[in-house]
Amino acid sequence: MSRILWGRKTSSNVMKALWALGELNLPFERIDVGGVFGKTDTPDYRGMNPTGLVPTLQEGDFTLWESNAVCRYLCNQYAPDSPLWPTEPKTRANIDRWMDAQQTVLNRPMSQVFWGLVRTPADKRDMAAIAGAIAETARAWSMIEPLLARQAYIAGDTFTLADIPWGVHAHRWFGMDYLGLEQPEFPAVRAWYGRLCERAAYRQHVVDTPIS
Length: 212
Ligand SMILES: N[C@@H](CCC(=O)N[C@@H](CS)C(=O)NCC(=O)O)C(=O)O
What we know:
The chain is α+β, with helices and mostly antiparallel strands. The protein has two domains: 3-78, Glutaredoxin (3-Layer(aba) Sandwich), CATH 3.40.30; 89-207, Glutathione S-transferase Yfyf (Class Pi), Chain A, domain 2 (Up-down Bundle), CATH 1.20.1050. The protein has helices at 12-23, 43-48, 67-78, 89-118, 127-150, 163-175, 187-196, 200-207; strands spanning 3-6, 29-31, 56-59, 62-65. It is globular. Bound molecules: glutathione (GSH).
């Protein structure tokens, strides 16, 4: 059975799926679509993914979109006993809520910071808006700072799926040039980021992709 991940590797949401595939040692092919590659507006792509966004996972005639759903499916299907997503209901619910919180709390302000600092030409940047987005993003990081001060990973003492959505953004957060704007410091989040950097799949699919 062939496995294809559709999506450019510079996308944070594609990175999540790539990282999960890497953690689970699952073979796959990746096809560049989205961003400068386009091709997400074609009937074929929209047939797989009506949102027209990336990533999309394709396994034969099964297709799946929404990056966090892709991570969960891969664990469920190929590593049901994995500590990445334990089956114990309360443990799993804790992981799920942190994955959801990345989408609902972190993603919007973090994307504003990233687009403002990295993907907007200098003469078009609204530095006041970026500073406001940095402050809002910092409030999201401050939710996990106390957790990570007392445990090694977001959902406890072991690495789980909860670390993946937040981890892709941590690399950007610590790797961007703030162009003179103040970057609030989160020592426990930084130490956790250091632990993530020890993981081969994180380095391969997140750290080694230029922040662009
Ligand atoms: N909630 C979706 C969001 C997907 C999304 O917004 N993807 C962005 C890239 S990070 C995208 O497709 N942007 C348009 C493009 O790359 O053409 C998910 O988690 O998969």
